[in-house]
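Hi team,

Filling in the usual template for the complex we talked about on Friday. All components are listed, including any nucleic acid strands or ligand strings, so the model treats them as one assembly.

SUBMITTER: L.P.
PURPOSE: interface mapping
COMPONENTS: two
RESIDUES: 514
SEQUENCES:
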Amino acid sequence: MRPLFQPRANTIAKASIVGTAVLILLTVVVLIFVNRTSWATKVGIARQQPVPFSHKHHVAGLGIDCRYCHSQVEQTAFAGMPSTKTCMTCHSQVWTFAELLAPVRESWATERPLQWERVHNLGDYVYFDHSIHVNKGIGCETCHGRVDEMPLVWKEKPLQMGWCLDCHRQPEKYIRPREEVFTMGYVPEEPQEVLGRRLVQEYNVQTYNLEDCSTCHR
Amino acid sequence: MLFEIGRLTDEPERVDLRAIREKLRGKRGQEFWRSLEELSETPEFRRFLEEEFPANAAERDGLRFDRRQFLKLMGASLALAGLTGCDPIRAEKIVPAVKPVEELLPGRPIYYATAVLREGYGLGVLVESHEGRPTKIEGNPDHPASLGATDAIAQAEVLNLYDPDRSQVVMNRGVVRTWATLRTRLQEVMAAQSAGGGAGVRILTGAVTSPTFRKQIEAILDKYPQRSMGALRAGGRLWAAVGCRAPLRLGRAHLLSARSSAGDPLARRRFSVHGAGRRPLCAGVCRRAARRRRPP
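RESULT (copied from the run log):
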């Protein structure tokens, strides 16, 4: 009778053990890389919005401050989104019949809110507070990029944990004077290492617990 | 996969819920049963209990999947459980208000100073409200009857706002009506009543201290001399005493004989004032204790 296991069965068994290990490893590696692509993080992909609002036009062209629309960024976790009324403060006077602004006028007339597509979305397990960052000298630009050069807003940074920790470990690399928080295209007047270290001291940034799990995951 | 398993038993349903329901039909509230034992005396309930928690259920019912298959399914669900985490970033909307509410910052509570009615008297409170939803009641430090304190009843008052039994719309025999319908109907009824001097009219209220409300009620009472009036309050006192109640200076008292504070609109104030009077003594004791605890 022919034996059930031929000599090569040993080879097959060894190969499949190694193969399985390699396959698992490969899957993990591929997943890690996929997670870093812009397909997964959506970095650099402009989002279509119900109204093609251009930050480039409003910020660089007209010079409107961030806080005119994101009015509560210095006080609460959420930066705040402009109500339809905020749009209408100007657009009841200028571009009153523009086709692009029809959804805004409709929202104003029907009292139905505009539904904007969220560009920056953190997991529900992350406790992020805009106000503390802004008040401790982290500029809008540091996380959101040159919004004044974006016709439609895209995500500039991946907003993943490694990226957050990069700054939480060395805030002196990114901190800027409070007066410059809302500036776009800010260039420090003195070397960042000197300025950063001084500002971290001056603004009393509590570096001892910036890396704690419970700082962001509460 | 699990959907294919279907019902765990092929036997017809033996639980006679219908008989249990039949027995309870027409009964209300406390009449259902006074204790579980009383209910469990019935043979229907015994059968129901055996059906719900049978011994050796799997064997008796001849389950169509055995232990191995069960473990396979469990293993598969465990292995695949992590896949739900591989969800790309979900598209979310941001929906700002059309007209912003004054002073409201989304994510921050607003505290409204208002009053809750306690046995006819207003107790000044602060109500914490998140995006228009009240969540917590605390005393108003600036209100003389509260001085920042509340009691258990006032704390629980916030639940009243979410009471599912509270009607949110005008209802007539289970049908939603408008306020206009109510007004028309009420006028018809009251017009018919005025012929008999209002003999069929009843007014039920809690204790009333509001001079305006009292005036309005008295206007109705004058119009319908035959009406009767009742207070929903246990004591049956209708017009709570309005006027000056001198706050006792309990802060100077060293010893208090406690009595029931029920029905005392200034009870919260008295507690606070008396408590504040005691504090210096306590603070001294606490300071000494703290000094002893402090390491050299």
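MY TAKE: Chain A has two domains: 8-36, 55-81+116-216. The beta strands of chain A are 116-117.

Thanks, L.
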